[in-house]
From TrEMBL:
Residues 8-87 form the 2Fe-2S ferredoxin-type domain. Keywords: 2Fe-2S, 4Fe-4S, Iron, Iron-sulfur, Membrane, Metal-binding, NAD, Quinone, Repeat, Translocase. Residues 87-126 form the 4Fe-4S His(Cys)3-ligated-type domain. This is Molybdopterin-dependent oxidoreductase. The lineage of its organism: Bacteria, Pseudomonadati, Thermomicrobiota, Thermomicrobia, Thermomicrobiales.
């Protein structure tokens, strides 16, 4: 079957009812798809069929029938299946009785009680007596690490934990040790997990169907807890989490299988990061500087003081920095406050220099600072992945899972260019380890190989792109290989693999060209000339025609959870919300009609209501530093988020902040920012507020409040409204959903994205409106006359020309079908 092509359908009869399902699915997957539950213990979504537990036995009716394991047997056209025949029930009961011979019967004290698959199946099949008995064999708890315990007598050796560690996480830190009755789960030579390649993701605990692997930090029973589905706030992959809490505290994070962009899988941050939310160092009170000290004051008093001081700095003497960890709604209100209340376009993100360089490279190459494709296309279309930058396993862990998965199940080829040594490097077809600062040279040398081999298929002819192509004459592969010490064979093989979609040798590309290749990069997490390397990657995609097609493009992981959404909302000195230039008169007129009528009729202590929005670009972060040092910017509002996983703050910015006359810092933790602040406002973290995040591939998701923020801490959207109200500007949004409604109305790219739709699942912008498809990958695609790449919108988005392409066929159900089909193909078929 061609990658991404529609699945062929077959008709099967299950329990007397006919159904039509995709060919290639297992019987278990087909039953799940039509809503029929088949008991199982060793089956796990995304993992290859194992067939060890025998609980999923079904009966095939007819002459060639019999009992089969439904997780491993594929459907055939005309097949008749019974999931509840007497033979099935008898077989399952026997298997359960065998499991219970040595299984510990300590359900009341077991951590898994209430959500144990073996417990559930024992009740379901009414196994209340066991004729197969002997004295129980028991063993002590084994502490595999400071996070994970193992209890041998509860283990059923289903190998879920070892398979997820190998096939998805890609580290193979644990394995099945010994054989037969003595088999157990453990590490090589009894090492502590911390001394292995283990990433502490906790997925072995998550997939364990019984209580064999347990969370050492969890000391409750599931029925004691409430659960809230939300989105992780620690990186821009945007994983869905199930936050379990009671009495105002988060007790653990669990997994919602086949939900969200992560399908339930998480990393160490998602699993254990809740400890940051309830860290004892969290800021709980507002503070005001008196002399050299910050003194705690009531929140209302601090807000009054903020408003009183800001009245002196209306205009370009004021600037604001938005937190890429705050929600879309909060960042929208901060840029609105900066433009419509303070009267300046001096608004940017609190980002590192490298993050800014990546944004600038995307903007210069594609017309917008956005990733071009969906990560979900790794499941269906991508045939080769070029992974560049610091370890993606550390920077965007769950995205790295799909690279391992796609290698195992779709035979996707991988090329890694990284100075870091991590597991994917050793599994890749090519690993290039460039000396510091030479990434751009290596990428340009690859482009030169592609040109020399006649594999270039550029779809853009802009002057900037042509200048880059002309510059490749200076990047002869031999010269680059000699200068960097990288074998020329590696550079050549990497180039050919990327250009040919993993084939590795030039040949006849076919009607649709070579298979698609995607670029993942984490350049925003390293120092050096990041801009040059990022532009080179973007141009490489353009040169090979890997832009504007499924499974291709460039996906940049920039770090903070809402780095993309912060830009979308207009936290940029040159762009209004939706990337409309501040010089766009029609865009300003539309926003003025919505924003400026909120001013009170009376002037508050000389603070003038604005009559028009500023029309000239403001200062970027770098320019703000220069303006502060020059005495032009005198007051700032900085929204920070200094948790453990946050990027460091630029030393030059910290030095400049000391020269301000007035600095307001909204923060979660004591930090270098609060040390320099005149007033500190305690802020809520992601588990303590409602709103939306937009992840690295432009997927918008719902953030939900799980626990209340500590003390006087408040979400940023509430703080900004309170300050604006004290300045005579009436913002009256009672909930973030109302803010998103305004965003949807005023921002073309977010049109159709509202809370009720997001309750059903993520949406990738732009969507086609309420009547159109709610999902689908969107890619940068067409050239604009006159050269250059730009974003445009359809008529529904305001009548501007568009370069975005829709792929309505890539739904979550389609992804699921392709996963099932790929997982059950034989090696010969692959």
């Amino acid at each position: 079957m061609a990658v991404g092509s529609p699945a062929r359908l077959v008709t099967v009869t299950i329990n007397g009812q006919q159904y039509t399902v995709p060919e290639g699915m297992t019987i278990l997957e087909a039953c799940r798809m039509v809503g029929i539950e088949v008991p199982n213990l060793c089956y796990q979504p995304l993992l290859r069929p194992w067939g060890s537990c025998r609980i999923c036995t079904v009966e095939i009716l007819g002459r060639r029938g019999g009992l089969v394991e439904s997780c491993a047997a594929q459907v055939r056209d005309g097949m008749e299946i019974s999931t509840d025949s007497p033979a099935c029930e008898e077989s399952r009961k026997f298997v359960l009785q065998m499991y219970l011979v040595d299984h510990a019967l300590d359900c009341p004290t077991c951590d898994k009680s209430g959500e144990c698959y073996l417990q559930d199946n024992t009740y379901y099949h009414n196994v209340y007596a066991n004729p197969y008995r002997r004295p129980k064999i028991a063993g002590p708890y084994k502490h595999l690490s400071d996070l994970i315990d193992y209890k041998w007598e509860r283990c059923i050796i289903c190998s879920r934990c070892t398979r997820v560690c190998d096939e998805v996480i890609g580290v193979t830190a644990i394995e099945v040790l010994k054989r037969g009755l003595e088999a157990e789960i453990g590490t090589a030579y009894g090492m502590d997990l911390r001394d292995t390649t283990c990433t502490s993701c906790g997925m072995c605990i998550a997939v364990c169907p019984v209580g064999a692997l347990t969370d050492r930090k969890f000391a409750h029973h599931p029925w004691e807890l409430d659960a809230t589905e939300t989105v992780c706030g620690f990186c821009d992959v945007g994983c869905t989490l199930n936050v379990e809490h009671n009495r105002g505290l988060v007790r653990r994070v669990t997994h919602l299988w086949e939900r969200g962009v992560n399908y339930g899988y998480t990393c160490v941050r998602g699993k254990w990061g809740y400890e940051q939310v309830q860290h004892p160092d969290r800021l709980e009170t507002a503070m005001v500087r008196r002399g050299d000290e910050l003194v705690a004051v009531p929140l209302d008093e601090a807000l009054d003081l903020v408003a009183e001081r800001l009245r002196r700095y209306q205009g370009d003497r004021f600037a604001a920095l938005a937190s890429p960890d705050n929600t879309n709604e909060e960042n929208y209100l901060l840029q609105l406050f900066t433009r419509a209340v303070m009267g300046t376009n001096n608004i940017d993100r609190l980002a590192t220099r490298s993050q800014g360089a990546v944004d600038r490279a995307l903007l210069d190459s594609f017309g917008l600072p956005v990733s071009t494709n969906s990560v979900q296309e790794m499941f269906t279309h991508s045939a080769c992945a070029l992974v560049v930058g610091p370890s993606i396993g550390d920077r965007a862990p769950v995205a790295s899972y799909w690279l391992y998965w796609s290698r195992n199940y779709r035979e996707t080829k991988t090329v890694v260019i990284s100075r870091d040594d991590y597991p994917l490097c050793h599994r890749a077809e090519v690993w290039i380890r460039p000396p510091e600062g030479t990434e751009a040279a290596v990428i340009n040398a690859m482009a030169r190989v592609i040109l020399d081999e006649g594999l270039a298929r550029p779809a853009v002819q802009s002057s900037t792109f042509q200048e880059w192509v002309a510059s490749l004459r200076d990047y002869e592969p031999e010269r680059v290989a000699s200068a960097t010490g990288i074998p020329i064979e590696k550079i050549r093989r990497a180039a050919l693999l990327y250009a040919t979609g993993g084939r590795g040798t030039p040949g006849t590309p076919g009607d649709e060209g070579y298979p698609p290749s995607v670029i993942y990069h984490t350049l925003a997490h390293q120092d050096g000339d990041v801009y040059a390397a990022a532009v080179a990657l973007n141009n490489l995609a353009l040169l090979t025609g890997n832009a504007g097609r499924p499974g291709a493009g460039v996906i940049a992981f920039r770090g903070p959870a809402n780095a993309q959404g912060t830009l979308d909302m207009g936290c940029h000195p040159a762009f209004l919300p939706g990337y409309r230039p501040v010089s766009d008169r029609e865009a300003r007129r539309q926003l003025e009609a919505a924003w400026l009528p909120r001013w009170s009729a009376t002037v508050v202590d000389g603070f003038e209501p604005l009559r028009a929005l500023p029309a000239t670009p403001g200062s970027s972060l770098e320019q703000m530093i220069e303006a502060i040092e020059a005495g032009q910017i005198k007051a700032m509002y900085v929204a920070g988020s200094s948790h453990e996983f946050a990027p460091p703050i630029e030393p030059r910015l910290l030095s400049a902040l000391e020269k301000l006359e007035f600095l307001v810092v909204e923060e979660c933790f004591p930090s270098p920012l609060t040390e320099r602040a005149h007033i500190v406002l305690p802020a809520a973290m992601f588990m303590e507020k409602d709103g939306t995040f937009t992840n690295a591939d432009r997927t918008v998701q719902r953030l939900r409040l799980a626990v209340d923020p500590p003390g006087d801490a408040r979400p940023s959207w509430w703080l900004i409204q309170e300050i604006a109200r004290r300045l005579g500007y009436q913002l009256a949004f009672s909930h973030p959903s109302l803010v998103l409604q305004e965003v949807t109305h005023l921002t073309p790219i977010y049109r159709g994205i509202i809370f009720p739709r997001l309750e059903r699942g993520p949406l990738t912008w732009p969507v086609r409106g309420l009547a159109g498809p709610a999902e689908g990958a969107v890619r940068l695609g067409a050239t604009v006359p006159g050269g250059g790449w730009a974003i445009w919108m359809e008529q529904a988005f305001g009548g501007v020309e568009s370069a975005l392409q829709f792929d309505d066929g890539l739904s979550r159900e389609r992804v699921r079908f392709v996963i099932a089909e790929q997982a059950t193909r034989t090696d010969e078929e692959r």
